[in-house]
Amino acid sequence: MKTVSFFPSRTVAIYMGRMFLVRTFAVLAALVLVLQALDLLSESGDILAYPGNGDAQIWQYVALRVPQIVSRFLPFSVLLGTILTLITMNQNSEIVALKGSGLSAHQVLAPLLVASFGVAIISFAFNDRVVARSTATLNQWQKVNYGKLPIDRGDRANVWVRDGDDLIEVAQIRGRGDATRLGGITLYDRTGGNLVAILRADHGKRAPGGGWMIEPATRFDVARGSVTNLGSVVIARDVRPDQFTLASVDADGLSFGALKAAIGDLSDAGRPTKALEGSLWHKLSGPLSSVLMPLLGAVAAFGIARSGKLFVRAVIGMGLGFAFFVADNFALAMGNLGAYPPFLAAWAPFLLFFLIGEAVLIRSEE
Predict the structure, then answer these.
(1) Residue 163 contacts residue 186 (beta carbons within 8 Å)
(2) Which of 75, 181, 183, 314 is deepest in the core (most CB within 10 A)?
(3) Residue 38 to residues 44, 65, 185: CA-CA distances in angstroms?
(4) 55-91 vs 132-143: helix crossing angle, rounded to 10
């Protein structure tokens, strides 16, 4: 008995997959080159404005910025790669030959769907291992106006915590829980809203009996105008580690596992996590949007090329792709505001445009 395969022949599948991947990554390379050049024109002045910065810092910025551009525009490159591949095959009557051999629209698109799923897996791994780290480092670098680059890419920077009337500023924080380490501590000692003294220290860690031991500490007395060396001193006995480590959680600068752990810590501390949960789900739905692009761009594959409507079909495919990106950003923004549940904010646009793509594909096949 003859078996029916969902895919076309092995030769055709490899041919279509290779054509699709070459066009996708060629478009991505062109977009990254142009967008990085434009971005560098706007940022190079600020980078070189810091004393001592030069060509090395310019290239350092490019190395940190390129992964962000790649991550953002990879799904769009998949869309353009799909449209270019299908337009080329349509003009060469290859789609007509495949349809004439008895293949359905879904079977024609199967090699592109498999290839785009592989792109989605690569995108997730790239975002998790490269983009999150480069984003965290770039954010810290920009906070110091492109000054000395922080070493630890997992650090939190410029965190403020209130302890009664006192204010505590920490330049850099590493670790979690009792293993939290503080760097560049400044404590503004206030009484009744008036500044009494300023304590500064280079390092700090969790004290055994509670609070935070900072050293070497100095105390500037505002009234007297004198500075006193304190050595090691314990401050902020009522401040928990999570108040430092979770004061500023940047979802874009954390990997999937790190963000999930941060959400758990925030939840245990009784703090809101809805916006971060939406970002966590989007770390999955974002890369997976590449699988949607062959469906949305499939409108360019079907229809007679000689009818003169091939360009219109390509524009329709691009329009569907742009509409998805707009809807995706809108839903994520609504999730951050708390208007949408986190799961809905991340997955609703994907599911909606999956149904739209299927409807267009079925309509084209009919």
Answers:
(1) no
(2) 75
(3) 10, 12, 38
(4) 140
CA dist., res. 29 & res. 33, Å (int): 6
Following DSSP, what letter does each residue of 294-330 receive, concatenated? HHHHGGGTSS-GGGS-HHHHHHHHHHHHHHHHHHHHH
> Can you tell me the distance from the alpha carbon of 95 to that of 87, in angstroms, rounded to the nearest whole number?
9
3-state secondary structure of 364: helix
Would you state the structure tokens that stand for residue 305, as one six-digit string?
A: 């090329």
Two tokens, residue 131? 């983009």
CB 180 within 8 A of CB 206: yes
Asked whether residue 284 carries a pLDDT value surpassing 70, the answer given is yes
Answer for the pair 308, 323: CB distance below 8 angstroms, yes or no: no
Q: Tell me what pLDDT residue 1 has.
A: 40
Q: Give the separation between CA 326 and CA 183, rounded to whole angstroms.
A: 41
The whole-model pTM stands at 0.76
Tell me which residue of 345, 347, 357 sits closest to 292, measured CA to CA. Answer: 357
**Mean pLDDT computed over 33-42:** 94
- Can you spell out the DSSP letters for 186-236? EEEEEETTEEEEEEEEEEEEE-TTSSEEEEEEEEEETTTTEEEEEEEEEE-
- Report in angstroms the alpha-carbon separations of 334 from 9, 72, 120, 276, 338: 45, 19, 25, 12, 6
Peptide bond into 272 cis (omega under 30): no
Closest by CA to 212, choosing from 179, 188, 189, is 179
Q: What is the DSSP letter of 159?
A: E
Strand partners, 191: 194
d(CA 28, CA 282): 21
